[in-house]
DNA sequence: GTCTATAGGAAGATAGAC
DNA sequence: GTCTATCTTCCTATAGAC
């Protein structure tokens, strides 16, 4: 991916974070990227192409984001907290990313063509969380853990739900993070 | 509310469930309600008015929905299950309601004017769930329960998150319900 | 209250010069 | 690759008759 393309896709993510996927207007997007609308159509075939590329770009950044936030030498319990809490931060770029991810999820309700991307990304995230949970449990108990997919699905789903409540003004970021921490503890306690 | 208005608002909910809040087109909405666009503007001032009324109507129906699903003589544990699982059903009208509610939540990220309605409805729902949880705990333990607001917030949030995953094709309705049941059990176990 | 017809404007997409 | 200018379509909202 060229520098220019990344610059344009960053603008797309900003506009989506401001107006939503359905609210993305090519004109506003082009202005945000400081290029003409014609150039947008030169890079991406049409409006759907813009969304497709923007959401794939988001996907790429999400993986990098998690790896960056979780150093390899962290103990499993701390790593679990980190990887789940990393999306729930008030910093502007994290917040933007979070809004855009929520929009991707919401769009897939009406746009089946997005579902496959979403399914694989979500699946990888769930598996990753389940792996770390297994490490936590086996480190603590010293015995093999049962299947943790369900617990990992609940926790990752809770992250998505909490992010929407936070972003829609229902609770503060501190409260949101506190609720998630409580859920992690509750899930681990029942294993 | 007159019969005619309810009929029109039902059409609005159907269209929102099909295309989303931002995807609602007055023309399609009018056609769905089998009236002219002019009549839409006669009943609701403008497009924003349509959304406002549709979402308030949704709100009204949600409360009725829960009361209907939870008979007064049900034991607290069963009532808790019912009131949380009631939105997660594949029946077409429930599914529609669920999509529209998700859209309301998602819209509030970009439309601050919707947040107050959303906040009060959510708050009432959380309080209701917390009350029933208290009954469950006090029936089982025989001693006063601690504050359960956090647990109720997590469970209701999980319902919202799970509904989005279900509706976006990530998991089946059976799996979704199973995950929620698991979470209810986990939350109760840690009290 | 309800309709038909349409004004007026926004937005997606393209043509063609540089 | 990048722009300006514009075409066309679609959509909100209104005018005015019944």
Which features characterize this protein?
mainly alpha, Tetracycline Repressor, domain 2, DNA-binding, elongated, 191 residues
Strand content of chain A: under 5%
- As residue ranges, the low-confidence spans of chain A are none
What is the residue-mean pLDDT of chain A, rounded to a whole number? Answer: 95
Q: State the oligomer.
A: homodimer
Name the shape of chain A in a single word.
Answer: elongated
Q: Greatest chain-chain interface?
A: A-B, 44 and 44 residues
Q: Please, how many helices of chain A?
A: 9
Overall radius of gyration of chain A: 18 Å
Instruction: Give the class of chain A from helix and strand content and strand pairing.
Output: mainly alpha
**CATH fold call of chain A:** Tetracycline Repressor, domain 2
Structural domain count of chain A: 1
| Beta strands of chain A, count | 0
CATH architecture call of chain A: Orthogonal Bundle
Question: Strand count, sense and closure of the main sheet of chain A?
Answer: none
Cα(first) to Cα(last) distance of chain A is 44 Å
Q: Summarize the amount of helix of chain A as a percent range.
A: over 70%
What's the CATH H-level homologous superfamily of chain A?
Answer: Tetracycline Repressor, domain 2
Q: What is the top-level CATH class of chain A?
A: Mainly Alpha
Order of helices and strands of chain A: HHHHHHHHH
């Amino acid at each position: 991916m060229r520098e220019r393309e990344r610059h344009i896709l960053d603008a797309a993510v900003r506009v989506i974070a401001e107006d939503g996927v359905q609210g993305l207007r090519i004109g506003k997007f082009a202005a945000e990227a400081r290029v003409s609308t014609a150039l947008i159509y030169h890079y991406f075939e049409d409006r759907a192409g813009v969304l497709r590329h923007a959401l794939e770009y988001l996907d790429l950044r999400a993986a990098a984001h998690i790896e960056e936030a979780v150093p390899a030498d962290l103990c499993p319990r701390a790593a679990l907290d980190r990887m789940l809490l990393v999306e729930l931060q008030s910093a502007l770029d994290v917040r933007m990313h979070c809004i855009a991810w929520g929009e991707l999820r919401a769009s897939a309700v009406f746009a089946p063509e997005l579902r496959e991307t979403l399914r694989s990304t979500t699946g990888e995230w769930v598996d990753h969380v389940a792996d770390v949970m297994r490490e936590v449990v086996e480190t603590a108990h010293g015995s093999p853990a049962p299947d943790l997919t369900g617990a990992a699905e609940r926790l990752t789903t809770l992250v998505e739900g909490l992010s929407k409540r936070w972003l829609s003004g229902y609770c503060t970021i501190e409260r949101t993070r506190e609720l998630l921490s409580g859920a992690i503890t509750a899930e681990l306690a029942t294993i």
